[in-house]
Amino acid sequence: QVQVEESGGGSVQAGGSLRLSCVASGSPLSGHYMGWFRQVPGKGREGVGVISTDTGHTYYEDFAKGRFSISQDLPRGTVYLQMNNLKLEDTAMYYCVLTPAWAVTYGGEWYLSDKYHYWGKGTQVTVSS
Fold first, then answer.
1. pLDDT digits (tens, 9 = 90+) for 95-127
2. Residue 95's beta-bridge partner residues?
Protein backbone atom coordinates (compact mmCIF):
# COMPACT_ATOMS: atom_id res chain seq x y z
CA GLN A 1 0.00 0.00 0.00
CA VAL A 2 1.40 3.35 -1.06
CA GLN A 3 1.52 6.04 1.60
CA VAL A 4 2.92 9.52 1.86
CA GLU A 5 3.48 11.32 5.14
CA GLU A 6 4.39 14.95 5.71
CA SER A 7 6.28 16.56 8.56
CA GLY A 8 7.88 19.87 9.41
CA GLY A 9 4.96 22.25 9.67
CA GLY A 10 4.66 24.80 12.42
CA SER A 11 4.42 28.47 13.26
CA VAL A 12 6.82 31.07 11.97
CA GLN A 13 6.96 34.84 11.71
CA ALA A 14 6.61 36.56 8.39
CA GLY A 15 9.92 36.59 6.58
CA GLY A 16 11.02 33.35 8.19
CA SER A 17 11.63 29.91 6.73
CA LEU A 18 10.36 26.38 7.13
CA ARG A 19 11.25 23.08 5.51
CA LEU A 20 8.61 20.44 4.98
CA SER A 21 9.46 16.80 4.38
CA CYS A 22 7.44 14.05 2.77
CA VAL A 23 8.31 10.37 2.90
CA ALA A 24 6.74 7.91 0.47
CA SER A 25 6.48 4.21 1.16
CA GLY A 26 5.06 1.18 -0.59
CA SER A 27 6.15 2.01 -4.10
CA PRO A 28 9.32 2.86 -5.99
CA LEU A 29 9.44 6.57 -6.69
CA SER A 30 10.75 6.27 -10.22
CA GLY A 31 8.27 7.37 -12.84
CA HIS A 32 6.29 9.61 -10.51
CA TYR A 33 5.60 13.22 -9.75
CA MET A 34 5.75 14.17 -6.09
CA GLY A 35 5.21 17.48 -4.39
CA TRP A 36 2.87 19.77 -2.55
CA PHE A 37 -0.58 21.30 -2.58
CA ARG A 38 -2.07 23.60 0.03
CA GLN A 39 -5.49 24.58 1.25
CA VAL A 40 -7.03 27.22 3.46
CA PRO A 41 -10.48 26.83 5.02
CA GLY A 42 -13.23 27.71 2.58
CA LYS A 43 -11.04 27.43 -0.51
CA GLY A 44 -10.04 24.66 -2.84
CA ARG A 45 -6.67 23.00 -2.90
CA GLU A 46 -4.02 24.83 -4.92
CA GLY A 47 -0.77 23.53 -6.28
CA VAL A 48 2.49 24.70 -4.74
CA GLY A 49 5.00 22.72 -6.74
CA VAL A 50 6.08 19.23 -7.75
CA ILE A 51 9.18 17.40 -8.93
CA SER A 52 9.66 14.70 -11.52
CA THR A 53 11.36 11.86 -9.72
CA ASP A 54 12.94 10.72 -12.99
CA THR A 55 14.35 13.99 -14.28
CA GLY A 56 14.42 16.21 -11.20
CA HIS A 57 12.58 18.90 -13.13
CA THR A 58 10.47 21.09 -10.88
CA TYR A 59 7.24 22.96 -11.45
CA TYR A 60 5.96 25.83 -9.28
CA GLU A 61 2.93 28.04 -9.05
CA ASP A 62 3.70 31.72 -9.55
CA PHE A 63 3.43 32.59 -5.85
CA ALA A 64 6.09 30.00 -5.02
CA LYS A 65 8.67 30.96 -7.64
CA GLY A 66 11.74 32.53 -6.10
CA ARG A 67 10.69 31.73 -2.53
CA PHE A 68 10.00 27.99 -2.44
CA SER A 69 12.22 25.15 -3.58
CA ILE A 70 11.52 21.44 -4.00
CA SER A 71 14.23 18.81 -3.84
CA GLN A 72 14.35 15.04 -3.56
CA ASP A 73 16.37 12.30 -1.90
CA LEU A 74 15.35 9.22 -3.82
CA PRO A 75 17.24 6.64 -1.72
CA ARG A 76 15.30 7.92 1.28
CA GLY A 77 12.04 8.18 -0.67
CA THR A 78 11.78 11.78 0.46
CA VAL A 79 10.85 15.10 -1.09
CA TYR A 80 11.44 18.43 0.61
CA LEU A 81 9.77 21.82 0.34
CA GLN A 82 12.02 24.65 1.45
CA MET A 83 9.96 27.78 2.06
CA ASN A 84 11.73 31.10 2.48
CA ASN A 85 10.50 34.64 3.01
CA LEU A 86 7.16 33.32 4.22
CA LYS A 87 4.16 35.63 4.01
CA LEU A 88 0.92 35.78 5.97
CA GLU A 89 -0.93 34.44 2.95
CA ASP A 90 1.18 31.27 2.98
CA THR A 91 -0.75 30.14 6.05
CA ALA A 92 -2.45 26.89 5.04
CA MET A 93 -2.56 23.15 5.42
CA TYR A 94 0.14 21.70 3.20
CA TYR A 95 -0.39 18.30 1.63
CA CYS A 96 2.16 15.99 0.09
CA VAL A 97 1.05 14.37 -3.16
CA LEU A 98 2.32 11.53 -5.32
CA THR A 99 1.14 10.25 -8.68
CA PRO A 100 2.43 8.33 -11.69
CA ALA A 101 3.94 10.58 -14.34
CA TRP A 102 1.36 9.55 -16.92
CA ALA A 103 -1.46 10.80 -14.64
CA VAL A 104 -0.26 14.41 -14.96
CA THR A 105 0.69 13.97 -18.62
CA TYR A 106 4.37 14.06 -17.72
CA GLY A 107 4.06 17.45 -16.08
CA GLY A 108 1.57 19.16 -18.34
CA GLU A 109 -1.23 18.88 -15.78
CA TRP A 110 0.79 18.96 -12.59
CA TYR A 111 -1.40 21.72 -11.11
CA LEU A 112 -4.63 19.69 -11.21
CA SER A 113 -5.34 18.22 -7.79
CA ASP A 114 -7.61 15.44 -9.07
CA LYS A 115 -4.67 13.92 -10.99
CA TYR A 116 -2.90 12.88 -7.81
CA HIS A 117 -3.45 9.34 -6.63
CA TYR A 118 -1.93 9.61 -3.17
CA TRP A 119 -2.30 12.32 -0.55
CA GLY A 120 -0.84 12.79 2.89
CA LYS A 121 -2.91 13.91 5.86
CA GLY A 122 -1.40 17.38 5.79
CA THR A 123 0.79 19.54 7.98
CA GLN A 124 -0.22 23.01 9.14
CA VAL A 125 1.90 26.05 8.36
CA THR A 126 1.00 29.25 10.18
CA VAL A 127 2.72 32.54 9.39
CA SER A 128 2.20 35.41 11.82
CA SER A 129 3.15 39.07 11.79
1. 999 999 999 998 899 999 999 999 999 999 999
2. 37
